[in-house]
Design a protein that fits this description.
The complex is a heterodimer of chains A (566) and B (213).
Chain A lengths: L26 H8 L3 H23 L4 H17 L1 H14 L3 E5 L2 H15 L3 E4 L3 H6 L1 H7 L3 E4 L2 H8 L16 H11 L11 H18 L2 E4 L3 E3 L4 E6 L3 H7 L3 E7 L3 E2 L5 H12 L7 E6 L9 E7 L3 H5 L15 H5 L1 H6 L10 H12 L8 H4 L9 H5 L6 H16 L3 H14 L1 H16 L8 E2 L7 H4 L4 E2 L6 H6 L1 H21 L6 H4 L2 H5 L3 H6 L6 H5 L5 H11 L2
Parallel strand pairs in A: 1-10, 2-3, 2-4, 4-7, 5-8, 7-10
Antiparallel strand pairs in A: 5-6, 6-9, 11-12
Helix pairs in contact in A: 3-12, 9-10, 16-19
Chain B lengths: L4 H15 L21 H14 L3 E5 L4 H11 L4 E4 L14 E4 L6 H4 L4 E4 L3 E3 L4 E4 L16 E7 L3 E2 L2 H6 L7 E4 L4 E2 L7 E2 L6 E7 L3
Parallel strand pairs in B: 1-12, 2-3, 2-4, 4-7, 5-8, 7-12
Antiparallel strand pairs in B: 5-6, 6-9, 10-11
Classes of the chains: A alpha/beta (566), B alpha/beta (213).
C-alpha cells in the first residue's frame, strides 16, 4: 500500500505499563477466597460504611458541590487534551526553580532512576510518603534488591510493609486489618516496642510515632508521590493527614517525587477546585489536616536537591482510547471503593492491582492491558461489577465508571477471538435459525432434565468443560422438562391457547369503547408462528400450566448475556 | 542517537491524542462554584472557630494589645519552658512569656528543633469554611521544619487574613512560596477508621485569633 502525502499514518499505540498492575488469579478466583475471610468482611463493611456517611455529610453541606464536580471534570478533560504542552511547561518551571525533571517510560525505568538518584546521595535508607505511583512500579522491592532500605512512614503503609502484606485500599491501605492484628504486627516487627502495648488506636499510633521519629530525623533522602503538579507555576502538592508527608518533604536533603503524567493541572487556580473535591470525597473531612505545596527548591527551607520523575507506565496507552482515557481523570480519592457493593465484600486484594475497586477495574486493564488469553486476571476486572452506578455518583470528577466497564467488556470480547463461549454462541445462532434443529435441541435438553440434570432448585451449578468458565460464576437454570413449543403442540396447550384467544376476543369487544389494545387482538395463530415476543405480551394472563413451564430456557440466557456484553 | 525517555513519552502522548482526538475544540472550564465570597467579621470568626474546634485545635480570641498575654498563657498552660520563633516574629508577642525564647536560623539542624517545647508563628491566610490555616514561609512564619518538629504549635491568626472559602484563600497565596495548609493537629484514621489526633506533626495546635488585626 502506498502512502500519500498529507495522509497521516495511524500512529502506534503505546506499550502497556509494568509493575503491580496484574494479579496472579482472576477476580472471581481471588474473590472466592477473600469472601471466606469473615474478619476481612467485617472490617471492610464497618470501614466503608463509616467513611460513606462522613462523605455524604461533608459533600452535602456544600451547595455548589455539583458545580465543583463539573469544574473538576472539565479541568481534567482540558488537561488530557493539552498534556504535552502542560508537561513541558511543568518541566520548565520546576527546572527554573532549581529542580531536576526526569522522564520514565515505564515502571522499571522509574525505579532505576530513583535508585540511581538515591545511590548518588550515598544514603542506604529512604523514607517514603504513601504513594500510589511507587506502589504501582514496585519501587520498594527494587530498592531492596539494590541494597537500599525503604521505610514507609504513613501509618497504614507501615502496617502493610511490616506485615509483608499488600495494600487493599487507596486511602486506608490497611483497612483489612483490625486493631488486634495491628498490635500483633507491631509487637512482632517494630524493634524495641513496648511489650505491654495494647490495642488502643491512640497507643498504636504513638508506637508508630516513636519508631518513625528517629527515621525522620536521620534519613537524608525521601521519596514521595504527588497529588497535583501545577504546570503554570511548577508547584507540586501532597495531601495528607499524619504529618509524615510534611516530615519527608521538609527534613531530608534530597527529595525525589514520582508523579504520573496525568496528575498535572494547568493552573494554580485549579487547586481551589481540587482542594475542595479531594478531602471531602476521600476522608470525608472538610479539609485534610496537612497539605504541602512546594515549587522547586527554596533556599534555606526544605530539601535543596529536588527531583521530579514523570511516569508514563501505560498512561499513554490509556490516553489513546477515546472512551477509556476518562479513567486517567482519577484523583485517587477512593470514594468509588467505599460505595461499591463488590469492593465492600471482596476487598481490595481480589483485584490483584495497586488500584482496586471500581476505578481499579477500569484503570488497571488500561494501564497494563487485557491480554487476549482467557485467563489474564486483568480481563476479568471489567466484570467485577454489578454496574449499579454508585461509583459514578460518588466520583468527584464524574468519571462514568459503569460505561467504561461496559466498553472494556466489549473490547475484551472483541479481543478474545475464538473462545468456547464464542463457539457456543455461534452454534446457538445456527440452531436458532433452523426451526427443525431448534426443536430437536430443545427435546434433547428436556431429555437431559428427565434423566436428572439440575438440583432441587432447578439450577445447575457446574457445567462440564468447555462451559465450566460460564458456570464458575453463575448458576445455570436447568432446561425445563418440556419445551414451550412441545407444550403448545399438545392438547393441553391448544386448549389453553383457545381459552386465551376467547378471553382476548371478549376483552377486545369490551375495549372498543376505550381504545385499541393491539396485544389482545393477537390470536393463537400468531403465537404458533414462533414470534418470541408474543410470550412477553401475555402479561398477567399466563396460565398456571404456562408458569410451571416458564423457567428461563437456554436461549433466554444467551440473549441476556449477549446484551450485557455489548 | 537513541530517543530520550522524554522524547518517547511526549511522542506517545501526541500519538495518543492523534488516535483519540478531543471531541470538542477547546474545553472551557465552567467555574459556577462559589468564589469571591465575603462575610462580616463576626461570622468569619464564628465559622473559623467552629471548624478549628471541630478538628480539636484550641482556639483563643483576643485583641491586638492582649496578644502577648494570651500567648504566654497558652505556653504556661502547656508547660512550655523553651519555645522557638521565626526570625521576624513580632518580638513583643513574647513580652509576657518568662521561658526561654530561641530565634530560629538556618544553621540549626532540624533534629535540634525537637528539643523545643513549642513554637510560635504568625500565618498568611486562613479559610473559615474548612478551618484551614495557610503558612507560606514568610519571615514571621519561618521555615517549614520550625512549625513541624516541635510538639506544640501556637499560631497567631489576624481576623483580617481570614477569608470565607477555599477559592478566596487560594487567590491570596503566592505560588512559589513553600506553603503548608494546616487544619487541626495531625491525625490518622488508619486503624479501623478511628480518628486519632496527633501523629507526627505537632500534637497540639493552639490558634490565637486577633479580632482587631
Amino acid at each position: 500500500m502506498s502512502t500519500f502525502l498529507g495522509m497521516p499514518a495511524t500512529p502506534p499505540r503505546s506499550p502497556y505499563g509494568t509493575g503491580n498492575l496484574r494479579g496472579e488469579r482472576t477476580f472471581p478466583q481471588a474473590a472466592h477466597d477473600e469472601l471466606r475471610n469473615e474478619q476481612l468482611r467485617r472490617n471492610l463493611g464497618r470501614a466503608t460504611h463509616t467513611i460513606r456517611a462522613k462523605r455524604i455529610a461533608v459533600t452535602g453541606e456544600l451547595p455548589d458541590w455539583e458545580e465543583l464536580r463539573d469544574a473538576g471534570a472539565a479541568i481534567k478533560t482540558d488537561t488530557m487534551n493539552r498534556l504535552p504542552e502542560l508537561l513541558e511547561r511543568l518541566e520548565r518551571k520546576v527546572t527554573e526553580r532549581g529542580g531536576t525533571v526526569h522522564w520514565a517510560r515505564d515502571g522499571v525505568e522509574a525505579n532505576e532512576i530513583v535508585t540511581r538518584l538515591v545511590r548518588a546521595t550515598g544514603s542506604s535508607d529512604v523514607i517514603k510518603v504513601k504513594s500510589m505511583a511507587t506502589q504501582e512500579t514496585g519501587l520498594n522491592e527494587h530498592l531492596e534488591s539494590a541494597g537500599i532500605t525503604p521505610y514507609e512512614t504513613d501509618l497504614a503503609e507501615l502496617i502493610v510493609q511490616l506485615a509483608h502484606d499488600r495494600p487493599s485500599h487507596i486511602l486506608v491501605p490497611a483497612i483489612h486489618r483490625n486493631r488486634d492484628e495491628i498490635r500483633q504486627i507491631f509487637l512482632d516487627h517494630i524493634p524495641g516496642v513496648d511489650p505491654g502495648l495494647d490495642n488502643v488506636p491512640a497507643h498504636l499510633a504513638a508506637a508508630a510515632r516513636a519508631y518513625l521519629r528517629e527515621k525522620f530525623m536521620t534519613t537524608r533522602v525521601a521519596v514521595s508521590g504527588a497529588n497535583f503538579g501545577i504546570a503554570e507555576t511548577g508547584t507540586l502538592s501532597v495531601v495528607e493527614s499524619e504529618g509524615n508527608g510534611r516530615m519527608c518533604l521538609t527534613l531530608p536533603d534530597t527529595l525525589i517525587t514520582v508523579m504520573g503524567i496525568e496528575k498535572v493541572l494547568p493552573r494554580y487556580q485549579d487547586l481551589e477546585v481540587f482542594l475542595q473535591l479531594l478531602p471531602r470525597s476521600s476522608t470525608g473531612e472538610r479539609m485534610n489536616p496537612y497539605t504541602s505545596m512546594w515549587t522547586g527548591v527554596t533556599p534555606g527551607d526544605g530539601p535543596q536537591d529536588f527531583h521530579l520523575v514523570l511516569l508514563d507506565n501505560g498512561r499513554t496507552a490509556a490516553l489513546a482510547d477515546r472512551i477509556g482515557r476518562e479513567a486517567l481523570d482519577c484523583i485517587r480519592c477512593s470514594a468509588c471503593l467505599n460505595v461499591c457493593p463488590v469492593y465492600e465484600r471482596a476487598g481490595g486484594h481480589a483485584y490483584g492491582s495497586t488500584y482496586p475497586g471500581p476505578i481499579g477495574a477500569v484503570l488497571t486493564p488500561q494501564l497494563a492491558g487485557m491480554h487476549a488469553a482467557k485467563d489474564d486476571p486483568n480481563s476479568s476486572l471489567p466484570y467485577a461489577s454489578s454496574l449499579c452506578g454508585a461509583c459514578f455518583d460518588a466520583c468527584p470528577v464524574k468519571i462514568d465508571i459503569p460505561s467504561l466497564l461496559v466498553e472494556l467488556r466489549h473490547q475484551n470480547t472483541e479481543q478474545a477471538g475464538t473462545t468456547a463461549e464464542k463457539l457456543a454462541m455461534k452454534a446457538a445462532a445456527t440452531v436458532m435459525r433452523n426451526p427443525k434443529l431448534y426443536t430437536a435441541v430443545q427435546k434433547a435438553a428436556s431429555l437431559s432434565r428427565a434423566v436428572g440434570v439440575g438440583g432441587r432448585d432447578r439450577t445447575i451449578s457446574r457445567l462440564p468443560a468447555p462451559l465450566d468458565g460460564w458456570s464458575d460464576s453463575r448458576d445455570t437454570a436447568a432446561p425445563p422438562t418440556r419445551s414451550f413449543r412441545s407444550w403448545l403442540a399438545s392438547a393441553e396447550g391448544a386448549a389453553t391457547m383457545r381459552a386465551a384467544a376467547e378471553e382476548g376476543a371478549r376483552r377486545t369487544a369490551d375495549d372498543r369503547t376505550g381504545g385499541e389494545r393491539t396485544a389482545d387482538n393477537r390470536t393463537a395463530d400468531d403465537w404458533t408462528s414462533g414470534d418470541r415476543t408474543a410470550d412477553n405480551r401475555t402479561g398477567g394472563e399466563r396460565t398456571d400450566a404456562e408458569r410451571t413451564d416458564g423457567d428461563r430456557t437456554a436461549d433466554d440466557l444467551t440473549e441476556g448475556d449477549h446484551q450485557e456484553g455489548q | 542517537m537513541t530517543a530520550t525517555a522524554r522524547d518517547t513519552v511526549l511522542g506517545r502522548i501526541r500519538d495518543a491524542l492523534a488516535l483519540a482526538p478531543a471531541p470538542a475544540p477547546a474545553t472551557t472550564v465552567p467555574r459556577a462554584y462559589r468564589t469571591g465570597r465575603t462575610l462580616p467579621d463576626a461570622e468569619r470568626l464564628a465559622l473559623l472557630t467552629d471548624r478549628l474546634t471541630d478538628y480539636k485545635a484550641q482556639v483563643h480570641t483576643c485583641t491586638r494589645e492582649r496578644t502577648a498575654e494570651v500567648i504566654a498563657g497558652v505556653l504556661r498552660e502547656r508547660g512550655a519552658h523553651r519555645v522557638g520563633v521565626p526570625a521576624q516574629l513580632d518580638e513583643r508577642w513574647l513580652d509576657a512569656y518568662d521561658g526561654e525564647v530561641l530565634t530560629d536560623s538556618g544553621d540549626i539542624p532540624a533534629p535540634a528543633l525537637g528539643e523545643l517545647d513549642g513554637v510560635v508563628t504568625a500565618s498568611a491566610v486562613s479559610c473559615a469554611e474548612t478551618g484551614t490555616i495557610f503558612l507560606d514561609g514568610s519571615p514571621d512564619q519561618g521555615r517549614r521544619a520550625l512549625s513541624l518538629v516541635p510538639d506544640l504549635h501556637v499560631c497567631v491568626v489576624d481576623l483580617s487574613s481570614v477569608v470565607v472559602g477555599v477559592p478566596e484563600a487560594v487567590a491570596r497565596l503566592v505560588p512559589e512560596r513553600p506553603t503548608t495548609l494546616i487544619s487541626g493537629p495531625s491525625a490518622t484514621s488508619d486503624i479501623e477508621l478511628e480518628r486519632v489526633e496527633g501523629v507526627h506533626g505537632p500534637r497540639t495546635l493552639a490558634v490565637v485569633i486577633r479580632t482587631d488585626a
